[in-house]
Write a structure and sequence with these properties.
This protein is of the alpha+beta class. It has helices at residues 10-13, 79-84, 107-110, 140-150, 167-176, 250-260; strands at 17-18, 29-32, 42-46, 51-57, 62-65, 91-98, 100-101, 104-105, 121-130, 133-134, 157-159, 162-163, 181-186, 195-203, 206-216, 228-234, 237-244, 264-265, 280-283, 288-293, 295-296, 302-303, 306-311. Strands 1, 4, 5, 6, 9, 10 and 11 form a 7-stranded mixed sheet that branches. Strands 15, 16, 17, 18, 19, 20 and 23 form a 7-stranded antiparallel sheet that branches. Strand 16 (228-234) and strand 17 form a beta hairpin. The radius of gyration is 21 Å and the shape is globular. The two termini are 41 Å apart.
Length: 325
Amino acid sequence: MNDVLAVLSASERALVSRSAAPEWVEPMKATLAAEPFTDPAWIFERKLDGIRSISRRTRSQVSLLSRNDLSLNARFPELVPALEGIASADFVADGEIVAFEGHRTSFARLARRHQERVPVFLYLFDLLYLDDYDLRRLPLMARKRLLRHAFDFGGRIRLTSYRRRDGEPLFGEACRRGWEGLVAKRIDSPYTGRRSRDWLKLKCTNEQELVIGGYTAPRGSRIELGALLVGYFQGDRLIYAGRVGTGFDRATLRDLAGRLAPLRRDSSPFADPDVPARDTTWVEPRLVAQVAFAEWTRAGRLRHPRFVGLREDKDAREVVRELPT
């Protein structure tokens, strides 16, 4: 067995199977939690505000893949040679591509890559395959042990740190620092390619993906469009969540207008019959926006929503309203 796997115990090695790295691994997803907690059976990581990426390297190539299996190599070319330099032959690792605004990770700044030079980094937090071994049945802490041994971190490839205690104080510290929040992970959890309650999201601010179903005409000095009409899917029905009219600069408005123009349609894509239609242009519900907001109202609308950026790494049909457990 590979020398790196020597850091595992005999019982852990029994969970490792021989298998070449596949071309795609469905990422494990966290469930939204209602409040922070402390539990010795859980660790707490900083919730990074970026783009999820499954990094795959074989002897012949490096692939950066989004959570909906789209290549990110052309979008973040500087990360490819950084991954090529890893000593291990083959691997599949899970992580987040981020850009910084001061000491905070910022999806909004990452989304401006097409407008300005923005340095990016890849933070890894899990290892799924290594040198033709499938590690996904291992408990989380064993996979993290292997991740530390298999990679030389530095430069653009960085290791995601964690804490194993004091979940509530750490959450308070995260919010004071302006972080997006924390991700809590059960220490014995295997890696499952689905949404799981073994990983929990603890958010400092309300923010989620929503689907764009239309936009209003601009007024005053605003160019291209006024506000976005957004919603989420409930089965096959697109449920209206409100209008987002802030968070745009002129370059973003021009970019959005260009992307929305080919998607125009004659009728509303929303299932709700009372969606405001005055001065509204309807579009096919394909583009996904990241939206920050104060809270959900009792009527199921966003209060004080703000546009953060477009999410090209998530299919519109996967967007649902996130409810805490």
